[in-house]
Amino acid sequence: MHWPDDVAARYRAAGYWRGETFGGLLRDLAARYGSRPALISPGLPGSPAARWTFRDLDERADRLAAGLHAAGIRHGDRVVLQLPNVPEFHQVCFALFRIGALPVFALPAHRSAEISYFCEFTEAAAYVCPDEEHKAYAPGTRAFTLADLAGLSAPSGTDPVEPPGPGPGPGDLAFLQLSGGSTGLPKLIPRTHDDYIYSFRASAEICELTPESVYLCALPAAHNFPMSSPGVFGALSAGAASVLAPDPSPGTCFPLIERERVTIAALVPPLALVWMDAAASGGHDLSSLEVLQVGGAKFSEEAAKRVGPELGCTLQQVFGMAEGLVNYTRLDDPEDVIVSTQGRPISPDDEILILDDEGNESDHGHLLTRGPYTIRGYWRADEHNRTAFTEDGFYRTGDIVRRAEGGYLVVEGRAKDQINRGGEKIAAEEVENHLLAHPAVRDASVVAVPDPYLGERTRAYLICRGEAPKKAELRAFLRDRGIAAFKIPDMFEFVDAFPQTAVGKVSKRHLRERT
Ligand code: OOB
């Protein structure tokens, strides 16, 4: 699952992997930027408005690490973490990093089906959640709410606390991130201290962050994009402040941009459209905004062209994946490159392999990649890894791309069985399995249909036993199974049979074209 020794040695020699850990990094940042703001939050239920300096974050991480350690959390333990955009999210991360326990990054939208699975599959030692209601999502796992965490932290003013034990090394796992997935159950992505720190430090450089920059975290902080591209971690590494927005709406974010003089923000395409429309009606001073990053799903060229004129800032397209590889358009790229490509890789050692359907190298086809921050295998998924990775360690992204001049990539489609609903990834098979649990459903096939706003929406085709259930009943059934709301199909269609491929499999291509 790890990089071969000779490859790891090469990444170290090249200076990508510097032998740092998250815990050590924060300590260094606190020494360097001590009283500068690190995390700014307008507050949410259970988390008061906050303005934490680098020193505050460092100390609070230590105090919580001591409390969690006293509560039995140990090196190597997994802890499912589900918090909204509040500074406690990062406090818990760094506390766990210092112990050497691994956060498992759940999204705020996840419900009992996802959370209970993460807890069981990772044999989690604990589940960190916003409030008492969430505890029901993880029966049998010890849960800590925001209020519990406050009680657990060693009081301020007490002596600095070091968690007992040696703590993690730079090559150890730091956390488990979730894959967008294309299989029945989500896969977990193991990231090491060394590889992840490289990815966000290099990202901060590409995004030209300085201690004067102010990053707006508007997407859920647990997602790889606002976490590390450059995200809050990248901002911290540059000595810059991050503003944690409770939600990504213009109504919430525009006043924050104005008040905190935000310089860079990250959005998925549908939100970029909403922001542009809202900016047109005026009312807020967005003049501090220098860069708007857009990624997670394809941003149309027409929309991309509007960003500069309508928001008065530079667009940066970001094409990344939690498994590793991240591509950026550079801030000084010519306008046509910025609006028509999804950027080029972070690292000179990101290897890009594009294969046509026959497996020959090409400038157009399936994207595979290997590099200093791309995983070599999912966590505890040997069988899946045999198909998701090549024998020589390339990750099959499932994306269809075209190589443009200068090594820039243009995303043209997808070969994986997934729906990208405005940046939220839905594995078709996962939803199909839930639908198949309904007594009236004989067979289910879930596909993406184009949508002008979200890019894609989800349509479920169903073959029923006897009378078809009402659509509202199917929705209620899926809700009762406890899946995240974004996975519930937007449309249901009842059919007598599915179109088939030459080899007798369901032809999703034909279903998609049926609209
Ligand atoms: C980001 O990460 P994930 O893991 O949620 O999703 C990765 C997948 C990619 O394989 C691709 O299918 C799609 O999301 N994607 C894009 C895209 N950015 C991601 N498709 C077209 N255009 C783009 N700009 O989504 C993610 C992780 C780090 C940074 C940015 C996005």
Search tags:
ATP-dep_AMP-bd_enzyme, 9-stranded mixed β-sheet, GMP Synthetase, Chain A, domain 3, Rossmann fold, about 525 residues, about 25% strand, alpha/beta, AMP-bd_C, 4-stranded parallel β-sheet, AMP-dep_synth/lig_dom, binds 5'-O-[(R)-(benzoyloxy)(hydroxy)phosphoryl]adenosine, 24 strands, 2,3-dihydroxybenzoate-AMP ligase
Care to describe what's here?
Keywords: Ligase. It comes from Planomonospora parontospora. Belongs to the ATP-dependent AMP-binding enzyme family. There is one protein chain. The strands form 6 sheets. The chain has a 9-stranded mixed beta sheet, with helices on both faces. Strands 4-3-5-6 form a 4-stranded parallel beta sheet, sandwiched between helices. The mean pLDDT is 96. It starts with a helix and ends with a helix. Helix 7 (193-206) crosses helix 9. By secondary structure, the protein is α/β, with parallel strands linked by helices. It is 32% helix and 24% strand. It folds into 2 domains: 5-156 and 167-400, ANL, N-terminal domain (Rossmann fold), CATH 3.40.50; 418-512, GMP Synthetase, Chain A, domain 3. The longest helix is centred in the first third of the chain and has 17 residues, at 54-70. 51% of the residues are buried. It has 17 helices and 24 strands. The structure holds 5'-O-[(R)-(benzoyloxy)(hydroxy)phosphoryl]adenosine.
Write the layout of secondary structure elements.
Blueprint: H1 5-13, H2 22-33, E1 37-41, E2 50-53, H3 54-70, E3 78-81, H4 87-99, E4 102-105, H5 112-121, E5 126-128, E6 143-144, H6 146-152, E7 173-178, E8 188-192, H7 193-206, E9 214-217, H8 224-228, H9 231-237, E10 241-244, H10 250-260, E11 264-267, H11 269-280, E12 291-295, H12 301-311, E13 314-321, E14 324-328, H13 335-340, E15 344-345, E16 351-355, E17 364-370, H14 382-388, E18 395-403, E19 409-414, E20 418-421, E21 424-427, H15 428-436, E22 441-451, E23 455-464, H16 471-480, E24 491-494, H17 508-513
Parallel strand pairs: 1-10, 3-4, 3-5, 5-6, 9-10, 9-11, 11-12, 12-13, 23-24
Antiparallel strand pairs: 1-2, 7-8, 13-14, 14-15, 16-17, 17-18, 18-19, 20-21, 22-23
The structure holds 5'-O-[(R)-(benzoyloxy)(hydroxy)phosphoryl]adenosine.
5'-O-[(R)-(benzoyloxy)(hydroxy)phosphoryl]adenosine binds next to α8, β13, β18 and β19.
